[in-house]
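quick one, two chains, predict together pls
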Amino acid sequence: MMNKRVRLTFPQHLIKEPVIFTMAKKYDVMPNIRRARVTETVGEMVLELQGTEENLAKGIQSLRDQGINVELVEGDIIE
Amino acid sequence: MGYVKGMKCIECGREYSISPIYVCEFCFGPVDIVYDYKGIKKVLTKKKIEKRGGNLWRYRELLPIDGDPQAGLNSGFTPLLKADKLARELGVTALFIKDDSAIHPSLSFKDRVVAVALTKAKEFGFDTAACASTGNLAHSVSAQGARAGLTRFIFIPASLEQTKIVASLAYEPNLIAVDGNYDDVNRLCSEIVSRYKWAFVNINIRPFYSEGSKTHGFEIVEQLGWNAPDNVVVPCASGSLLSKIWKGFNEFRNIGFIKELKSKVFAAQATACCPISTAIKQDSDIIRPVKPDPHTISKSLAIGNPAEGYEALNAVKASGGYGDDVSDGEIIDAMKLLARTEGIFTETAGGVTLAVTRKLIENGKIGRDEVTVICITGNGLKTQEALYSKTASPHYIKPTMASFEEMLGEIKDGDAVSIIPAVAGDKKRRR
């Protein structure tokens, strides 16, 4: 099992969809939400995901496939 | 003795004692350094600073170290130039260049942040400094880490051009070329930092590292005779330089060095990667990460998921500033303009800052009779390839006077032909 701390940015059409729950159930990933905010046009959520390395990779890819931006909470490290 | 009280999460306000942490354990928000400003106000005076050496440690009470500086002892206190020729070109009255293209030892403002990061790393007891970088940060960690006696690990994407590697390899760090793209390097480094007790300057040392950027702002105020300018235009990659210049201005106000703070802070980005200026222009509270255009010439600013983007956004809003972005063509024009008018050859990021300044003046965001400072953060010798085939050509001649004078006749520029009547003077001297 491993943990990943990520920041998700949702496009407008996905703000009302249960994408985190669906991903968590499908890939056996445990989400632990720490922070979130939503505006009229965009949503942002900071959370920790726990699961096997393979399931985490699949779960994150499924979020990306739906159009959600998944980034590390520490930001881009290459400067 | 230092004047640091502790660390505090910017998002939820949770407080921490000083340690190499970089996000809040509760809300994963960024943490900031908190100082004892009352204590600093009692001991630090403008006169005391003015008597100190010409380097960034002249503001040491406002930097997050406990003991003596251990790196970057000659970094900082770079020139603030009054740029009258450039001011005339842009149609403004009072323009200044804060010129970090001349900073010791590696010619970019990263020398400021790395000086603080490595000093703090040594205080924490680390013996290895690391970073992931495609340019300036790698050069600075490689150079300053060598002098500070630290083992150095530099991570780069394996596809990085040879020219960018050489300036780091000269200092003989352990240069790790990762077989993957930028995202892969980002992910790998964030995993390494949790497993190895290394000082990753912009990950686990980031809260201390970014404090070094304040000195760029401190120097601007001191060099303007202890006055904050009306406007400061700052290039944004991670956003930390901008947010820390603003923090520095506020600290000077807190300790009474400046009476009031009316400065506006402006963010400059390249259109190829502009998550911060986009959020400013859209008046959004959320910064959408972007994938940078891989072909942009301003690679040093191409950070799609800026670590301190929110702090930069908040600083711009709090100051009443704005943000804008410019194309590669505008960046090149600005680099050449700065070199032609003020004799400063800046890297592409400097071109971004000047081009955005020009735009902000033209659209009225910056007043033509206000005092404006443009932050130039790196040296053009590092990104010469950006100007390949974009500069004027040499005048090719044969090694004869006839060929030389034929060429001279073709040059229409007044400056270039003013050398002709030197022969009479020569004869006089011989008598």
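Chain A is about 30% helix and 40% strand.
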